[in-house]
Amino acid sequence: MKRFKNPKFRIWMEIAVVVLLIAGLLAYKVLPNKTVDYNTRIIIVFKSLSISETMGFWDTVRAGINVATKEFGVITEIVGAEFERDIDGQINIVEEAIKKKPAAIILAATDYNKLVPVSEKVKQAGIKLITIDSGLSSDISECFIATDNIQAGIKAGTELAKLVDLGSEVAIMSHLRGTATAIDREKGVRQGLNQSGIINIGDTLFCDNSQERSYEIIKQLLKDKPHISGIACLNETSSLGAAKAIDELGLSGVVKLVGFDGTGSIEEVKYIERGVMQATVLQNPFNMGYRGVEMAVKAIQGEKIDKIIDTGSTVINRENMYNTENEQLLFPFIN
């Protein structure tokens, strides 16, 4: 083997090798390891896989998941019941997911309490549990990634209060009984209305996450109670159904409507442009999906992660909807 004859040159070469080794070790310790074994499987349990129920919000969550899947080098599988109201169906799907022995399960729970027992089974099986969008009554998940739905509800209630006169009667249309998003948003809406002086609030209506059912309920409500001045809806399906009813009855601008969600929804954008819907509260579903996978990977690797991550919410109306930041929330798929 050829040797270096110049001793000084050899010394400098040895120093260079040591420096490179030290730099490599420092880089290994300091830089985050963004990849895991390519066989690492993460199962994501959506509330529903029905096209009529997932709307733009869950399409955007899925987009965030897909980007993170590629970036972190994992295998992800999205499963879910056909309809969000099928709570028992979601419980069975989580049971089946456990049998597949993934490294992590990401869960958007359809019920605040009923998903707790099966979630405990996830942890007992040694599987990391991350919750997104809707939480659990138990503190069992490694990390909960969602909108602060009480604060988002307060924003919706405050916005509606600006649009109606003091002493007006308003209504709340929710999407599903027992789900954390519905519970917290309703609480926030009522708080926002009350703080603004609106105290005449009817009993909360439920549409079982059906746009058609929301349409039918609101249409009948406005026929029975023509004095209703405003409506707050708590998700995209309930918002679109209410908007259709108001539009058909020729009450656009007379009955004020504040919705929820609408990311990627051309229908909701058109309703706002036409003045059928006065405002909507947007979340950041892309971040929810992306960070769900990111936190699952970190939990698998044993890294310390935040217990709660708030992905934020923004009130969108006709005046601000085409601001650059708001436009990105409305149309996340357009570069």
Features:
335 residues; alpha/beta; Rossmann fold; 2 domains; 6-stranded parallel beta sheet; 11 helices; 13 strands
Short description:
The protein has 335 residues and is of the alpha/beta class. The chain has helices at 7-30, 51-72, 87-99, 116-124, 149-163, 180-195, 211-224, 236-248, 266-273, 285-300, 324-330; strands at residues 41-46, 75-80, 104-107, 128-132, 143-146, 169-174, 200-201, 205-206, 230-233, 256-260, 279-282, 308-310, 314-317.
Question: Please, could you describe this protein's structure?
Answer:
With 335 residues, the chain is an alpha/beta fold. The protein folds into two domains: 41-147 and 285-304, Rossmann fold; 149-282 and 318-327, Response regulator (Rossmann fold, 3-Layer(aba) Sandwich). It is 47% helix and 16% strand. The chain has eleven helices and 13 strands. The protein has helices at 7-30, 51-72, 87-99, 116-124, 149-163, 180-195, 211-224, 236-248, 266-273, 285-300, 324-330; strands at residues 41-46, 75-80, 104-107, 128-132, 143-146, 169-174, 200-201, 205-206, 230-233, 256-260, 279-282, 308-310, 314-317. Strands 6, 7, 8, 9, 10, 11 and 13 form a seven-stranded mixed beta sheet that branches. The radius of gyration is 25 Å and the shape is elongated. The chain starts with 6 loop residues before the first helix and ends in a 5-residue tail after the last helix. The model is unreliable at 1-35 (pLDDT under 50).
